[in-house]
């Protein structure tokens, strides 16, 4: 037989008892008790163990309490998920802003580099034209 005992205190654990009254009676008979006395003692032990058991209503109450706890936990988890979603969206927005700012900075730097290169190319082109003109002039004078 399976017995369930309701915890008496919050810290106490629920216990399940399994008692085989026939086995108990046989063990008592092996110790020298008569069959009638052994069976009576087994029944007394069974009654004692079952007197401490919770009725079905207590089990239903426990079931409802567990369901309420689960529902509360579910609500808490949903709130946490929502908070994480909000934080994720905020982080995403911040990263997009930083990416945009970085793009603007890179474009400025690229423009500055382009301006420097263009200036240097103009200088090199001017020098090349000047050297070519000088070379042709020297060839005409000496050639």
Count of beta strands? 2
Task: Give average pLDDT, whole number.
Answer: 82
Span from first to last CA? 127 Å
Find the structural class using helix and strand composition. Answer: mainly alpha
Order of helices and strands: EEHHH
Helical residue percent?
over 70%
- Strand residue content: 5-15%
Largest sheet: 2 strands, antiparallel
Radius of gyration: 47 Å
Low-confidence stretches: 1-5, 11-15
- Alpha plus pi helix count: 3
Walk across the major sheet and give the strand order: 1-2
Gross morphology? rod-shaped
Question: Mind sketching the topology for me?
Answer:
Blueprint: E1 2-5, E2 15-18, H1 21-30, H2 35-51, H3 56-142
Helix pairs in contact: 1-2
Question: What does the model show?
Answer:
The chain is 80% helix and 6% strand. It has helices spanning 21-30, 35-51, 56-142; strands spanning 2-5, 15-18. Helix 1 crosses helix 2.
Kindly list the characteristics that best describe this protein.
single chain, 143 residues, mainly alpha, two-stranded antiparallel sheet, 2 strands, 80% helix, rod-shaped, disordered N terminus
Gist of the model:
This protein has helices at 21-30, 35-51, 56-142, and strands spanning 2-5, 15-18. With 143 residues, it is mainly alpha-helical.
